[in-house]
Structure formats: C-alpha cells, structure tokens
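B., you asked whether I could sanity-check this one before it goes into the benchmark set. Here's the sequence:
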Amino acid sequence: MTDINNNTPACKMTIGGNIYQAGNALEFKTGDWRSIKPKYIPENCKQCGLCFAVCPDDSIPVSKEGKRADFNYDYCKGCGICAKVCPFGAIKMVEEDEN
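And here's what the prediction gave me:
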C-alpha cells in the first residue's frame, strides 16, 4: 500500500464510494447528534406502513404482525421524512429535549 499525499496520482488512490461491507449500520449509533426528533402519536396511527418504508435508518421497528412501535432513537437522525409521508398526523417533529 502506498502512502497517499498531495503528489499521489489518482490511479494510485483507493477507489472512493465503494461499499466493501454491507449491513454495518447497527455498528454505528447515529442518533446522538440530532436536534429534532420524530414523536410517535399512536392514537393517530393507522398502521399503514408508509413511514417504515421511507426511513433511511431503519429506525421504525415493526413487529412480526406488521404493527409499528415507537422509534429506535439510537439510530434515528431526525431527518423528518417519516413525518412528511404520514397522512394521519401520527408523527410530529419536536425539539430533541421534548418528550
């Protein structure tokens, strides 16, 4: 392996953007840097599954029966996509320190 520095030609550099090992998201808890978080409002939820399908961090647990539960905040980054797609108002974005 060659040391990479300012004089290294591109042909000698490691190829970027490659995924060498899939499925490693569980090794990195990324939820500790968000400033807003989704709040689950179960009484509004119709169990449609739209939020689960769009979550980029797999932070919405779903049981074997297909029922969703509260968020897994260890991995939720607070992107808000789930709240945007929920047509029933079952997800509201709140400040991180709110319950």
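One thing to flag: The chain has a mean pLDDT of 84. Otherwise nothing jumped out at me.
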